[in-house]
Amino acid sequence: MPKVVVVEWMTLDGVVQAPGHPDEDRDGGFEHGGWHLSYFDDLSRAWVVQGYAEAGGFLLGRRTYENLAAYWPNASEEEQVIAEPLNTKPKYVASKTLTEPLEWQNASLLKGDTARAVRTLKQQDGPDLHVIGSSEFSQTLIEHDLVDGYRLMIDPLVAGGGKRLFRDGGALKPLRLVESQVTSTGAILATYAAAEGSA
Predict the structure, then answer these.
(1) Residue 69 sits in a domain of what CATH number?
(2) Gap between the terminal Cα atoms of the chain
(3) The pLDDT of residue 199 is above 70
(4) Is residue 144 part of a domain?
(5) Cα 69 to Cα 47: distance, rounded to the nearest angstrom
(6) Long-range contacts of 68-75 (CB under 8 A, 24+ apart)
(7) What is the predicted pLDDT for the residue at 7?
(8) Quick one: pLDDT at residue 98?
(9) Bridge partners (DSSP) listed for residue 92
(10) How far is CA 29 from CA 10, 22, 136, 161, 164, in A?
(11) Into how many domains does the chain fold?
(12) Digit-coded pLDDT (tens) for 121-141
């Protein structure tokens, strides 16, 4: 049965909002978009590529789906190591506003209640499903005990505010560190699994 793994680029204070570029997500007046890119190095790039290659499919919120679908189908030849798995593997999208058929190949909407739909996916055979970005969707999965692990790149940076992966007031959820590495830019690549009996 597949596990659900949340994949995020995160600041030291837990912010995951708009890591890629300044206008990615200005909700709440967030002015620090693009904070993540300067922390990439060869090690972290290889780690990202490995994650896409290992995933059996992707779980996406609407905004993340629209951002990725607008770029990756037309990615350059040099980017195919990431574009190929994103374009060809199944993508399951949580949205109340999008309608099928979705334009991006191998993408479909999660039908009905999101948590129930993901629970059904977890009961099928296949490799793990990775949640990319999609902080609000991830929070829903966390609250329903549907997350089995995390792949986090934690940058040595404090954003001071913005959307965070973990909401205040949530349940205590022990994790087990599976693997960690430190990049040349001081970022930490950390893989966590839910502790026994906690997911």
Answers:
(1) 3.40.430.10
(2) 14
(3) no
(4) yes
(5) 22
(6) 68/104, 68/132, 69/102, 69/103, 69/104, 69/107, 73/104, 73/105
(7) 98
(8) 96
(9) 59, 108
(10) 18, 12, 17, 10, 14
(11) 1
(12) 999 999 999 999 999 999 999
Residue indicated by tokens 């990049």: 183
Q: Rounded to whole angstroms, how far apart are CA atoms 88 and 60?
A: 15
3-state secondary structure string, the chain?
Answer: CCCEEEEEEEECCCECCCCCCCCCCCHHHCCCCCCCHHHCCHHHHHHHHHHHHHCCEEEEEHHHHHHHHCCHHHCCHHHHHHHHHHHHCCEEEECCCCCCCCCCCCEEECCCCHHHHHHHHHCCCCCCEEEECCHHHHHHHHHCCCCCEEEEEEECCCCCCCCECCCCCCCCCCEEEEEEEECCCCCEEEEEEECCCCC
Provide the domain limits for residue 11.
4-194
Q: Which two tokens stand for residue 176?
A: 């087990």
- Which residue's structure tokens are 């906690």? 198
> Is residue 61, in this structure, part of any structural domain at all?
yes
- Considering only CA atoms, which of 3, 2, 19, 56 is closest in space to residue 134? 19
Please check whether residue 199 lies inside any domain of the structure: no
Q: Determine, yes or no, domain membership for 145.
A: yes
Instruction: Tell me the per-residue pLDDT of 56-86, one tens digit each, with 9 for 90 and over.
Output: 999 999 999 999 999 999 999 999 999 999 9
